Amino acid sequence: MDELSEATYTLIQLLGIGEVTTYGDLAKLLDVSPRLIGRILGKNKDLVIIPCHRVIMKNFKTGGYSIGIEFKRKLLELEGSLDSDGFVKRENYRSLYDFLTDP
Question: How many CB atoms are closer than 10 A to CB 31?
């Protein structure tokens, strides 16, 4: 596994059940594009250990998932992360960037 993928997966493991972050937040931490984060997550083969379903779009839509968007939505719903309109609840957002860079 390359270093960027390993760093991405490690950061995602900081998110607890019900917490989400954005592709952009991870990209900012790693100084890469959000699309690259999406491509890295699309290659995740260990969905139980690396909970990439907790990474969402900046507009609080769920975004893609390697085994299907509906499955991602179901996981987020089970974790209490979706509102009645199917958007991710803003109160569940955790900025890993702020968490890791704020003194």
Answer: 7
| pTM of the complete model | 0.94
Percentage of the chain surpassing pLDDT 70?
100
Q: Which CATH class is domain 3-94?
A: mainly alpha
What is the 8-class DSSP label of residue 61? Answer: -
Residue whose structure tokens are 């839509």: 61
> SS3 for 47?
coil
| Catalytic annotation, residues | 52
Cβ neighbours of residue 9 closer than 8 Å, sequence gap 6 or more: 1, 44, 50, 52
Parse the chain into domains and list their residue ranges.
3-94
Residue 41 has pLDDT above 80, yes or no: yes
Assigned token pair, 38: 């999406």
Tell me how far apart the alpha carbons of residues 25 and 55 are, in angstroms, rounded to a whole number: 9
